[in-house]
Amino acid sequence: MSLNLQSDLFSQEIVTEKNGELLVSSLVIAENVQNSHETVMRLIKENITELREFGTVEFTDLKSENSNGGRPIKITHLNENQSMLIMSFMRNNEIVKRFKVNLVKAFSLMKQKLSQSNFNIPQTFSEALLLASKQAEQIELQEKLLLEQKPKVEFFEAVTNSKTAFDMAKVAKVLDKNIGRNKLFEFLREKKVLQKDNIPFQTFIDRGYFRVIESKYTKPDGSTNISLKTLVYQKGVNYINKLLEREGE
Q: Are 134 and 112 within 8 A, CB to CB?
């Protein structure tokens, strides 16, 4: 069964090809999520460290006839992984959800176009059969890829809308990687994200991944003690998820 990649795309060209790389501009993202370009650029800069884990992010000047005196504005272009990541940081509404779908379709369509442009026109019946077989294999691989990506999309949806921080037990449940709370603590200690007492190193707190809170509890003898508890923000959940994927957890 073939994918209907061309249906329901927005009127403008979403994905472009530059030097063999497929990219989407910050202007296109802003227009399609119906938000200001300034807001989209701010979100990109706030998450620049995470975005650069998937490739370079360069900012260029674009002359704008709409700005005062035609002053240039800063724009950037994101690759497929980067654009999917930045979309996961946006608050969901119908417009944003629709564009996420269209963005996936646009990248798939452009890959298909580039792949087809390299095909030679078959000259014999046997060559035509071979070409049809290869196309069927590509479609099957694309459908398999979409199915493999579905759990990742559901994961991002689960945390994107939350402004709160999760305890480690909740993080383990959301990640659904067959790893429990204690094993997750152990894994993060091994990766030098957490210290021996399960408190994050300061660099990861500064990145906005974690929050440490004080919790009071009463001992059997009636005395009161204070313990520290590590909570994880959505950016931290995303970071932990990537660490686990690299380890094949």
A: no
